[in-house]
Amino acid sequence: DGGITQSPKYLFRKEGQNVTLSCEQNLNHDAMYWYRQDPGQGLRLIYYSQIVNDFQKGDIAEGYSVSREKKESFPLTVTSAQKNPTAFYLCASQPTGVREKLFFGSGTQLSVL
Amino acid sequence: GDSVTQMEGPVTLSEEAFLTINCTYTATGYPSLFWYVQYPGEGLQLLLKATKADDKGSNKGFEATYRKETTSFHLEKGSVQVSDSAVYFCALSDSSASKIIFGSGTRLSIRP
To answer: How far apart are CA A108 and CA A88, in angstroms?
Structure first.
């Protein structure tokens, strides 16, 4: 089945540790996005990528990093510089060039130990 | 910049009640408008969309009409069910379609 897969579903981070959230899609979409969702709040854009080897900062990029070495993959690293990382992280993909919908993964809940 | 404002929740209704969730937007150009729904512990799913003024999106009994004159895209359903309990997000795609901007979400709870 085609889709977008996030892993792990739950992740725990120790103080000073970097952690990486995985996002893989087999939909052949060019564009991919990372959003952060805090309880009772909307989605805030962290990073997005319109094409392989290119990505742009979103509204809250500080403390995060990404790579886009393959079309199918858009991992997000939450660095130790992100002082409040506890949140629900959502990855999404989108066909490029048209105003199409986003396809979302099922999310990763990151918590600090 | 572009933005989306939707009514704050939570919204609690009885089963079979009429639902309206307000959404207004600010955008340059001519965005596409969306409603997404999120069930507990899951990602978002597209509920409906409209790509130009006066378009009506509809799905699963939900409807929303793209009103350019009032910059609105209110979500409506004539008779809600318990299974409609979820968080609903209004969103727009900016003119360059480079990213989608979301509202803050409205939590809907339906009582049996």
So the answer is: 6
Q: Which residues of B touch A101 (CB under 8 A)?
A: 34, 46, 49
A21, A102, A103, A104: best mutation site toward chain B, by most B Cβ within 10 Å?
A102
Place of tokens 């509809």: B58
What is the distance between the alpha carbons of residues B107 and B88, in angstroms, rounded to a whole number? 6
Q: pLDDT for A51-106, tens place per residue?
A: 999 999 998 999 999 999 999 999 999 999 898 999 999 999 988 765 678 899 99
CA nearest A102 in B: which residue? B46
Give, in degrees to the nearest 5, the angle at Cα B52 between B48 and B56: 45
> From CA B65, how far away is CA B47, in angstroms rounded?
13
Chain B nearest CA to A14, separation (Å) = 23
| Rounded distance between C-alpha atoms, residue B18 and residue A110, angstroms | 37
Element (H, E) at B104: none
Q: Do B44 and A104 touch (CB under 8 A)?
A: yes
Q: Which of A41, A84, A93 is nearest to A62 (CA)?
A: A84
Residues 6-65 of A with CB under 8 A from B: 6, 33, 35, 40-43, 45, 48, 50, 58
What was the pLDDT predicted at B42? 85
Question: A12: how many CB neighbours lie within 10 A of its CB?
Answer: 13
Are B43 and A90 in contact by the 8 Å Cβ rule? The answer is yes
